[in-house]
Amino acid sequence: MKKKLFYIFISFTITSFSQTGPGGVGARDGSSSLIVWLRANDLNADGDISNNPANGTLISTWSDFSGNSNNFTQSGTRRPTYNTAGTFNTARFDASTGAAKFMNGSISGIYANASTFFVTNPVNNGNSHSLFDHSSASLRVEQWRNTNRVGFTRYGIADYSTAIVSPFGINSIISYHKTTGSSLLEVRVNGANQNLNIGSTTAGIPLDRIGRNSSGADEASGDFFEIIFYNSRVNDAQKIIIDNYLSAKFGSIAVINDVYNEDDVAAGNFDHDVAGIGRVNSSNLHNDSQGTGLVRVLNPSNLNDNEFFMWGHDNNAFLMNTGLNAPNIIKSRLNRVWRVSEVNTSGASVDVGSIDIRFDLTGITDVSTANLRLLIDTDNDGLFDDETPISGATDLGSNIYSFNSVNSLTNNNRFTIGIGITTVITNRKITYRVNN
Ligand SMILES: [Ca+2]
Ligand SMILES: [Ca+2]
Ligand SMILES: [Ca+2]
Ligand SMILES: [Ca+2]
Hints:
This protein is mostly beta strands.
């Protein structure tokens, strides 16, 4: 009996917070293993991407979006520069002139059980370049000395180089993963990965600062778009989800397993607030996700090995509008549309079963369980007016509405919500029948 209660407790703690981290992995309230999340498109981490500094501003603080206030700071000539000239805003570390640019974290240490992700466009300015650095270890986008290879260093012990070429001049997702008790460090760079044996189970991923704190070798170099740190290694399904979230956000960067192709130009660039659920096997799964957007998906009824369900939107305004393509009984429809990939790691369609899909409709007025409709473009022709609106939402409070056990969303489908034209029904029995 005691054992059973223990399992119930664990299950509760895993699902009790909403998954608002990158791609829906981890939470942004300080309750999860997501301990650092730096986003160059929201430098002050207030959730508003419209109040960033001007191009060329020296960056004194890069604020943490993880909910932990683990901000990175610098002063004087060591500061990187805020750059808005390209497609994506970046923190630019120029290693070509002057003193080394680096930023100090609010927390520090070596993490033997951790995962960290960088979206960066590194510049080749010298013999070696670092990502996170610490007095005893360093993550290297270029391993010492002029190897043109991604690697890892334990200062005073050894340099560990992968065979993966440093992606100079390329927008890249570089991640490192290590588990307690293992001496293997997985290094992933865009479409490649390699396990490095770093000779120690207690060695780990450093977090003190971005870039080496001395001029010359190992300086951070190039543009940094986003940096993520989990103080517990994410599982293999979560790695794939985070890779796909970052890839979609930053112009479809190549990843090892592309399980979301709605970010492609041909699919319509559903690049925004991408999140997902998925499963590699029974010990590597992720079945509840929200991410940075307003849609949460959970409770898949048939999420098998090698199945992923990911979604993202077109960045249209989160506003209800009349006159948009919708069935006649829909009075107004959301401008924003989402699109779904429900595939395996080879890109073939799969079925994760029915799902619960929740919408945070804060800011949308006149919504009720009686008039809210889920619109799914089941025939995938890009139009909603030929579909049957789905009713039966439940009100979970705080403006969150859930459609439970939805089974009509399939690979490549678009979805959105509408407000139906309803007549007031005073007989409560009839109301319940309608909602069922
Ligand atoms: Ca901001
Ligand atoms: Ca993709
Ligand atoms: Ca399935
Ligand atoms: Ca349709």
